[in-house]
């Protein structure tokens, strides 16, 4: 019999709770649901009002993995949806606005990916993002070195940056911005990526050419485009272990050379403990008063 859970007055059928989604650790679907319920207070504000792209892996990361942007078949009518403008024509997408819709979406087994704008102002950026992606043998340790340079460069323009793990190999930098279109933020981010490459030619790379990436950190500025999405803070990833894209302190970034790459691998139990003890390290991104105009 499929278990029925009542969440905020909504009755939800939760399937296959004993199914192992992460074979390396035996982490089950039930544990995935528990993780998201545990971090919901930190996660939901970063999802709210942002059209959701689902990266689904219903049989675990070794099974079929696929992106879905449109409202999935069978979506309950009480789940909020919105029409989103796209170059190929408008699409109706899901907005995860509350705990009930978060649990419903989690039951589909998905990574959460969101754009750098909210549905009220499509294409008007409220966040800036850099995705720092290391090319082997570089690792997240080298990403941290680039992140520290970018933090200082952004600070020079009055922009305060925050860091989170990608949940995979790299690091994400985020900042709250205002008064600029996604196109303008993309152009600004590309300019800084070019500056980073000039300042650290043996380490940073702004070009997307994969053959150039060995031993370097690709400073991906392109995820600021209105059509692009980035892994939402606190989402689990379709990886060998239940790693999360979760915030880290600048002290942790600065100490990466000592702690090594493993020190910046945050798994579901780690993140639950960190949220329980310290709340959301990215909460300042949600404060409109701290958003900064581009120079």
UniProtKB/TrEMBL annotation:
Domain of life: Bacteria
EC assignment: 6.5.1.1
Pfam families: LigD_Prim-Pol
CDD domains, A to Z: MtLigD_Pol_like
Domain DNA ligase D polymerase: 28-281
Enzyme class: ligase
Keywords of the record: Ligase
Annotated GO MF terms: DNA ligase (ATP) activity
Keyword Ligase listed: yes
Entries under NCBIfam families matching the protein: ligD_pol
Protein name: Non-homologous end-joining DNA ligase
Lineage: Bacteria, Bacillati, Actinomycetota, Actinomycetes, Kitasatosporales
Gene name, Swiss-Prot/TrEMBL: ligD
């Amino acid at each position: 019999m499929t278990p029925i859970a009542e969440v905020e007055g909504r009755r939800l059928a939760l399937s296959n709770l004993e199914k192992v989604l992460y074979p390396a650790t035996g982490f089950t679907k039930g544990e995935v649901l528990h993780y998201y319920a545990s971090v919901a207070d930190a996660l939901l504000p970063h999802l709210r009002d942002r059209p959701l792209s689902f990266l689904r892996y219903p049989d675990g990361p070794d099974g079929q993995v696929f992106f879905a942007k449109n409202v999935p078949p069978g979506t309950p009518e009480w789940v909020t949806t919105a029409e989103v403008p796209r170059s190929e024509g408008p699409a109706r997408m899901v907005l995860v606005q509350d705990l009930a819709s978060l649990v419903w979406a989690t039951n589909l087994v998905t990574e959460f990916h969101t754009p750098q704008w909210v549905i009220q102002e499509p294409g008007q950026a409220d966040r800036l993002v850099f995705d720092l992606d290391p090319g082997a043998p570089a690792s997240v340790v080298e990403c941290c070195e680039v992140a520290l340079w970018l933090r200082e460069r952004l600070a020079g323009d009055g922009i305060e940056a925050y860091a989170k793990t990608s949940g995979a190999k790299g690091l994400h930098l985020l900042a709250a911005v205002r008064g600029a279109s996604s196109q303008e933020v993309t152009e600004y981010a590309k300019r800084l990526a070019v500056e980073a490459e000039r300042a650290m030619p043996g380490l940073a790379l702004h070009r997307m050419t994969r053959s150039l990436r060995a031993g370097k950190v690709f400073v991906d500025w392109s995820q600021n485009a209105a059509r692009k999405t980035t892994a939402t803070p606190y989402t689990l990833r379709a990886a060998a272990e239940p790693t999360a894209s979760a915030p880290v302190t600048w002290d942790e970034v600065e100490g990466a050379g000592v702690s090594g790459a493993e020190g910046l691998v945050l798994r579901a139990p780690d993140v639950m403990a960190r949220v329980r003890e310290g709340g959301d390290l990215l909460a300042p991104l949600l404060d409109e008063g701290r958003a900064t105009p581009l120079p």
